[in-house]
């Protein structure tokens, strides 16, 4: 999980500002980052601010600490998307070259193709509208989890209509799993899984 800031771009980032079609790293502390529709960027990073990426943009990676990540239609993320405290959402036609990971925020993908894993600890997962995951869907225990630790509520995971998970559903702590009858996936791995069929 990315936790450091690399170089700051030579620019001042104002909240709500959309960047033009220029490749390079976009990095912000305490303000939002906007990548405009059809733009190209390398690494898009924010601490204490949201990230918004417009339709048909192409970026190398997206990383956020304490801010949500919202990605439009037909966006290509060449590597990973990672967030610590913030939701991640991708709209239809978007592609991720590696995985999507969140610690404490919901991951919601609509009609998206992910070449790697979907990974969370405390956030929910919603895979909708024919999303394809080439790897596993994982709900992990935190590294400092002891033998007697237990969440008060299960993590909610939804595998929606026409979704394909080519790997397994791997749950290391309690999960409420809602699965559409048209969805396909590998094995369900976990001892505390409540399975609910949806139509």
What would you note in describing this structure?
This protein has 199 residues and is mainly β. The chain has one domain. Helices cover 0% and strands 43% of the residues. It contains no helices and 24 strands. The strands form 2 sheets. Strands 2, 4, 6, 8, 9, 11, 12, 14, 15, 17, 18, 20, 21 and 23 form a 14-stranded parallel beta sheet that branches. The radius of gyration is 17 Å and the shape is globular. The N and C termini lie far apart (35 Å). Mean pLDDT is 87; it is low at 1-22.
Summarize the structure.
The chain is built from no helices and 24 strands. The chain is mainly β.
Instruction: Give the end-to-end Cα distance, rounded to a whole number of Å.
Output: 35 Å
Strand content: 35-45%
Give the overall shape.
Answer: globular
Low-confidence stretches: 1-22
Pick out its properties:
ten-stranded parallel sheet; 199 residues; 24 strands; 14-stranded parallel sheet; mainly beta
Fold blueprint:
Layout (H helix, E strand, L loop, with lengths): L17 E2 L6 E4 L3 E3 L4 E8 L3 E3 L4 E8 L3 E3 L4 E2 L3 E3 L4 E3 L4 E2 L3 E3 L4 E4 L2 E2 L3 E3 L4 E4 L3 E2 L3 E3 L15 E5 L4 E2 L3 E3 L3 E6 L7 E2 L3 E6 L1
């Amino acid at each position: 999980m990315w936790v450091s800031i690399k170089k700051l771009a030579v620019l001042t980032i104002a909240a709500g500002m959309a960047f033009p079609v220029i490749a390079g790293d976009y990095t912000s502390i305490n303000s939002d980052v906007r990548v405009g529709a059809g733009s190209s960027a390398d690494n898009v990073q924010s601490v204490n601010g949201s990230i918004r990426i417009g339709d048909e943009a192409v970026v190398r990676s997206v990383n956020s600490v304490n801010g949500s990540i919202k990605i439009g239609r037909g966006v290509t993320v060449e590597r990973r998307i990672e967030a610590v405290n913030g939701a991640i959402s991708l709209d239809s036609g978007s592609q991720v070259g590696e995985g999507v990971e969140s610690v404490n925020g919901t991951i919601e993908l609509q009609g998206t193709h992910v070449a790697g894993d979907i990974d969370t600890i405390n956030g929910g997962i919603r895979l909708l509208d024919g999303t394809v995951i080439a790897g596993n869907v994982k709900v992990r225990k935190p590294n400092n989890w002891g033998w007697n630790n237990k969440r008060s509520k299960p993590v909610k995971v939804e595998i929606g209509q026409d979704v394909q998970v080519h790997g397994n559903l791997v749950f290391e702590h309690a999960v409420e799993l809602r699965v559409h009858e048209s969805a396909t996936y590998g094995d369900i791995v976990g001892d505390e899984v409540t399975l609910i069929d949806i139509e």
